[in-house]
Amino acid sequence: MHRLAVAASLIGLAVSNAAADGVSVEEGLRISIVGGCHDCHTDGYAVSGGRIDPENALRGSAIGFRGPWGTTYPSNLRLTLAKMGEDEFVGYGHTFKTRPPMPWFGVHGMTDGELRSFYRYVKSLGEPGMPAPAYVGPGVEPITPYIAFEPQMPAQSQ
Description:
3-stranded mixed beta sheet
């Protein structure tokens, strides 16, 4: 009986510590959804009505975003994080910059706990998979599908 009480106390302590700092895989999943990460970094997410296919989650996309900066592709976040430890990712999350349309400035606003939760969620997804296509410079025609990200002026009415 004593062993059971000690085990229950240790489990309760571990749960309360996890809850106290709020860092968890589940919180990382929530952050990935409300932060819009899957919108671009998970193929098929938007057209599925927001259903996450764990096999495909955050593996990037071969559909580019083309604008004055060239054509960028949503990176495979599993590969990005596979190259980093958790502490390194937290520092990276507060400082990295990248080309449009990635809203890197929003990631800078995340707390250390949010970044740690996101890291743990991504790491829980399994094998990284293949990289997304490489950046294509301005004026170079991409060989993959892309979304034109350039403002269009409406036709002048007469």
